[in-house]
Amino acid sequence: MADAGTKTRYRRVLLKISGESLAGDGETGISPSVLAQIAGELRDAHQLGCELAVVVGGGNIFRGLNAAGMGIERATGDYMGMLATVLNSLALQDALEKLGVPTRVLSALEIREVAEPYIRRRATRHLEKGRVVIFAAGTGNPFFTTDTAASLRAVEVGADVIMKATRVDGVYSADPEKDPSAVRFERLTHFEVLQKGLKVMDTTAISLCMDNRMPILVFDMMRAGNIVRAVSGEMIGTVVGG
User: Fold this and answer.
1) What share of the chain is helix, strand, coil (3-state, %, to 5)?
2) I need a surface site. Which of 5, 53, 116, 145 has the fewest CB within 10 A?
3) Residues 6+ apart with CB under 8 A from 226
4) Where in the chain are the domains?
5) In this structure, are residues 74 and 35 in contact, taking their beta carbons and an 8 Å threshold?
6) pLDDT digits over 66-89, tens only?
7) Neighbouring C-beta atoms of residue 149, cutoff 10 Å
8) Helix (H, G, I), strand (E, B), or coil: what is residue 16?
9) Residue 137's closest CA among 161, 115, 159?
């Protein structure tokens, strides 16, 4: 649980979680233990008074970029990937509500039986009322990633920061899991990320953040308590543009 004396640095945060992280040690599917851990940390951050929005990917179920290799048209594959994010969003909503956290799923694709349609003013109102908002189905358009969706939604709802939860503790000059000489950056500008070709987010997402002066914090989600540390303003991970 979060310390009652802890204060949040940010009023409103958008957290980007990859679909692959929900699989845990498996390559596909949803790990119940990982889902419970993430939900618990989101609850703790929510209890600090931080307004939380979440974008979760769908790579643990289906990735649109892999569609071509299966003989599926790219646009169709991307729509399939959007539906995968809806599955993950519903799973996360269920886990949060079991912990007593009021949660709403807003989908860019209309699936009214299971999620509300995305309307910016409605999303903002949910956040103001203290509900965790999960944005599903990306932007609702093919050829755009959930990174771009996270950047777009963060700008639309007036988030103070995008927090990208990953398996590593920041942004490195190379993949630290493959290159032991990789150097971790503490701070970068958006332009440096583009110039160096660093794998923070795709170029569309980074450009959108740069144009709107939206900072990005990249941190290790696998370390227990890091989501609370991040929203509390502790210096963890790498800050881009902050």
Assistant:
1) 40, 20, 45
2) 5
3) 41, 165, 219, 220, 236
4) 12-240
5) no
6) 777 888 999 999 999 999 999 999
7) 26
8) strand
9) 115
